[in-house]
Amino acid sequence: MVYAVILAGGSGTRFWPLSRELYPKQFLKISGSKTLLEQTIQRLVNLVPLDKTYIVANKKYVHDITGLFPGSGRRTGPHLLLEPIGRNTAPAIGLAAIQLELREPEALMVVLPADHLIKKTKTFGQVLKAAVAVAEQGSLVTLGIKPSSPDTGYGYIKTGSRFIVQGSRNSKMYHVAAFVEKPDKATAQRYLRSNRYFWNSGIFVWKASVILKEIERLLPGLYKQLLAIKESLGMGREEEILERAYAGLESISIDYGVMEKAKRVIMVEADIGWTDLGSWTAVGQVAKPDRRGNVKVGNVLDLESRDSVVYADKRLVATIGLNNMVVVDSPDATLVCPKERAQDVKKVVERLKKRGAQEHYIHRTVYRPWGSYTVLEEDQGYKIKRLWVKPGARLSLQLHNHRSEHWVVVSGVARVTCGKKVYEVKTNESTYIPIGTHHRIENPGSKPLQIIEVQNGTYLGEDDIVRFDDDYGRVEQKR
User: In 155-299, where does DSSP find H-type helix?
Assistant: First the structure.
C-alpha cells in the first residue's frame, strides 16, 4: 500500500517578509486560491487517499493544519505527526517510517515537501507510479528535475548509467552516481552543459522498512532514538519520550545523512513543471511577466522597470526604472534587493533573530483556528487589534492578569461571556472586560464578526492568557 508523507515543518526564510516562522510558506496562497500545503495533498488524490496521508510538522503549526483540514488526526485523515522541535528532514522521515512500518510492514512512502509548486499534475502522477514500481523492488528512488538554468540555489544529482524496469520504458531512469551540494555559478554552468546533472527535487519514494535499514546503518544515533519512540507508542508516554528523543537529536537532512551514502539509489527524470519557490525570483514561474519582463502582484504602479519582481500586500507600491530587482511590501516590513541576491534573504532573517525582532517570527495579522487578529497599533501601555471571528466559532474562555480589554463590534453580533454574565453586543455597541475577569467571544451568526479591541495594561504580551476551556485543545495544564 502506498502512503504519502508530507514534510510541513519548514520556516520558508527565503520567502520573507511574506513567510514568517509562525506562518511559513506552506500556509501561503502564492499560486491560486489554495495554500501550497493544500495543493500538495490535492495533487496526490488519485494515487494516495487522504486517510493514508501523513503530515509531519512542528507542533506549533497544528492549528494552522487543522484549520485547513478539519478531519486531521481522525479516520478521514490526514494524519498528523507532530515534532516538538525541528530537526531537519532525516528525523521527520524516520518518525513517519516507524509509524508506517507498524501499520503495514511493506508500506511504501511517497515523501514530498509541503511548499513546492508542480504545474503538470497528470505527468506528476505518472512519474510517481513509475517510481513506486522501482521502490517496490527495494530501491531508494528520487525525482530529478532537468535544469533550465545554472541555478545556485538547488542541490544537484549526478546520474550514472540508465536503469531499465520492465513496463517503465517510457520513464527515464538512472542510477545515481552522486548527490552534489549547491554549487557556485561557474560549477552550475558546467553542470548545465554536461546533461548528467539534475536538480534535486526533494521528492522520494521507498519502502518504510528500507529507509529505516539505511538510517540504522548510516545514522545509528537517530535510529536508536526512533526505536525508543516506537516502543513508547500506545503506552501513554509518547509525548514525553518524543520530547526527550528530539532534544538529543542532531539536525540533519535525509540527503546528507542517508542519500549521499546509500548504494542502491535510482533517479526518475521528472518533467513536471516543478519549482520549490525557494526565493522571490521564482515568482516569475508562477505569475505571467508583462512585456518588460516584470512580475507585478497586488497594488503596484510601475514606470519603465525591467525584469523585476514587485509584490504589494496591501499598500500601493510605486516603482520607477528598476532593473532586475525584487521589491516585496508587507504591512510591517519591506524587502528591496537585486534578483541575484534573493537567496541572501535568509541572512536577513538570521540577523532579525539575533536582534530579537518580531518581524522574523510573526505577522501583524495572526491566524488562529477561530479566525484572525491584526495588530493595528501598539505603544507603551496600550495595543489596538482588529479581531475577525468565523461564523459559529468562539475564542477560549480565558483571563488576563495584566491587561483590561475594551471591545467595539464593527460588524456582526458578538456573544460575550464576562464573569458570570453572558450577553450579546451588536454592531456599533461596546463592552469592557476588567483585568482578571473570565471572558470569551463567540460568533453565533452566519457572517464574520469583526471587533476592534483596545488593550490597556502594564504587560500586553500574547502569553498573558490563562485558558479554562477551549474548542481547540489549548488549555494550559498548570493554572
Answer: 185-194, 208-218, 220-232, 238-247, 254
**Cα gap 210→55, rounded to integer Å:** 20
SS3 71: coil
Phi-psi region of 398 (alpha: psi -120 to 50; beta: other; left: phi over 0): beta
DSSP state of 14: G
For residue 477, what pLDDT is reported? 46
pLDDT digits (tens, 9 = 90+) for 267-310: 999 999 998 888 888 887 778 899 999 999 999 999 999 999 99
Quick: pLDDT tens for 78-96: 899 999 999 999 999 999 9
Q: Give dist(CA 340, CA 389) in Å, integer.
A: 41
Beta strands in 39-92 (DSSP E): 53-58, 79-83
How far is the C-alpha of 303 from the C-alpha of 319, rounded, in Å?
A: 6
- Displacement of CA 271 from its chain's centroid (Å): 24
Q: Which cell numbers in the block locate residue 85?
A: 522541535
Q: Which residue has the cell 495533487?
A: 43
Residues 6+ apart with CB under 8 A from 106: 1, 207, 209
**Number of C-beta neighbours around residue 70 at 10 A:** 10
Per the CB < 8 A criterion, the answer to whether 336 and 326 are in contact is: yes
Determine the Cα angle at 56 with ends 222 and 6, to 5°: 115
Give the whole-angstrom CA distance, residue 143 versus residue 120: 14
